[in-house]
């Protein structure tokens, strides 16, 4: 059974890994090839996109895409684990070449970085205390002063909670785990966050909480790069198009979103 049946992915239409007909000025693409290393920024805590396995390594959907990307470039891959609240500044200061961490494309973020074409579409969903299942059927039902809603600081879950539940009491935390703990312990009524993470949590913890699994937002996720680098952006778009065309993307999507064998690898 699919963990995230409501997820979508976007078709692309150009050749895999070919240099596009864009301006030939200096590019991160040249730096990557010269150093023989692709540096990818992420925060290892967003299942199933990137997370720690039992041995302390980082695995996930984005990680496998990054590995495939590095192979196409003919370079080694280095993952740069970075706290979410500093991940865009780290990209802008050159700590890594591309941000691949399940980031939603927003207007505010697009003022700071450029995004490659969206590679998946998700939405926000709600995990809540089981006792609420009989009376809470959507976000409108949670939009009341008596409800406490937890989410992760600086994410689109944070933004969605404020937008759709302005009358509720919003609690913001540094990590998803901290926010979910509030619901499990009874200190919050609900948790608002991305559908993939919530679906994985419910698959790992069946019967513990209730899940309103129909997403109430639509969000395009994209890989972020520093601005004014059309060659690097074009290469990433070509790479994504080719991964769709030769079904490499489909294989990875099936591994991480439609099957659960990987759950035994994580804590």
From TrEMBL:
<dbReference type="GO" id="GO:0016020">
    <property type="term" value="C:membrane"/>
</dbReference>
<feature type="domain" description="Solute-binding protein family 3/N-terminal">
    <location>
        <begin position="37"/>
        <end position="259"/>
    </location>
</feature>
<dbReference type="GO" id="GO:0015276">
    <property type="term" value="F:ligand-gated monoatomic ion channel activity"/>
</dbReference>
<keyword id="KW-0732">Signal</keyword>
<feature type="signal peptide">
    <location>
        <begin position="1"/>
        <end position="17"/>
    </location>
</feature>
<protein>
    <submittedName>
        <fullName>Amino acid abc transporter substrate-binding protein, paat family</fullName>
    </submittedName>
</protein>
<comment type="similarity">
    <text>Belongs to the bacterial solute-binding protein 3 family.</text>
</comment>
<dbReference type="InterPro" id="IPR001320">
    <property type="entry name" value="Iontro_rcpt_C"/>
</dbReference>
<dbReference type="Pfam" id="PF00497">
    <property type="entry name" value="SBP_bac_3"/>
</dbReference>
<dbReference type="InterPro" id="IPR001638">
    <property type="entry name" value="Solute-binding_3/MltF_N"/>
</dbReference>
<feature type="domain" description="Ionotropic glutamate receptor C-terminal">
    <location>
        <begin position="37"/>
        <end position="259"/>
    </location>
</feature>
